[in-house]
Amino acid sequence: GQSLEQPSEVTAVEGAIVQINCTYQTSGFYGLSWYQQHDGGAPTFLSYNALDGLEETGRFSSFLSRSDSYGYLLLQELQMKDSASYFCAVRDPGGGYQKVTFGTGTKLQVIP
Amino acid sequence: KAGVTQTPRYLIKTRGQQVTLSCSPISGHRSVSWYQQTPGQGLQFLFEYFSETQRNKGNFPGRFSGRQFSNSRSEMNVSTLELGDSALYLCASTRGGGENTEAFFGQGTRLTVV
């Protein structure tokens, strides 16, 4: 089966840097995605890693190590609006193209 | 372009009833996936449709079913509702090709079973 583990909650100070980790166990693996979801909103795509290494998109970066089945999302220069839940998600073959398993999410609270 | 549209946004049903939820994907997207989101279980995959065919199915009982129409719009149905079916139901659309990396989610339908 598939499982993804993330910390349930993280608190960080405005302007600081925070790292949200994700470890996964899946029967197959195409890549690791990250999504952001504000309370009452829809998840929105942040980043995708198919290969090992760091992907940078503005203040957000995502890292993947396939050998360690591990990835993380790095948020820099935290802003209050970054308070949200963050989900990692693994794409695996699952008999089709779009079987995506999500982690249980990390609730990030940014404080002044 | 218009995003993913889910209707209705809110729904209250009684145990034992059945419900149908609708999802209109982004124009040109052929794949629609459905997820159930609850506070304790996170986002759980229900099923995925591509070109009117179910390609993948999650671990949900047969009371949960879906279909996709030729215009890529999708519906999911839950029969014999149980209290535990109360959740936010999200659909996500992608183009459907083999290298999809980004799913676009709708705002969801919040179902409350009483």
Task: Work out the oligomeric state of the chains in this entry.
Answer: heterodimer
Describe the sheet with the most strands of chain B. Answer: 7 strands, mixed
- Strand content of the residues of chain A, in percent? over 45%
Q: What is the β-strand count of chain B?
A: 11
Main attributes of the structure:
heterodimer; A: about 110 residues; mainly beta; 6-stranded mixed beta sheet; about 0% helix; B: about 110 residues; 4-stranded antiparallel beta sheet; 11 strands; about 55% strand
Explain briefly what this protein structure is.
The complex is a heterodimer of chains A (112) and B (114). Chain A is an all-beta fold and 112 residues long. Chain A is built from no helices and 11 strands.
SSE arrangement:
The complex is a heterodimer of chains A (112) and B (114).
Chain A lengths: L2 E3 L3 E5 L4 E8 L5 E7 L6 E6 L3 E5 L2 E6 L4 E6 L8 E9 L6 E4 L3 E6 L1
Parallel strand pairs in A: 2-11
Antiparallel strand pairs in A: 1-3, 3-8, 4-5, 4-9, 6-7, 7-8, 9-10, 9-11
Chain B lengths: L4 E3 L2 E4 L5 E6 L6 E8 L3 E9 L2 E5 L6 E5 L5 E5 L8 E8 L9 E2 L3 E5 L1
Parallel strand pairs in B: 2-11
Antiparallel strand pairs in B: 1-3, 3-8, 4-5, 4-9, 5-6, 7-8, 9-10, 9-11
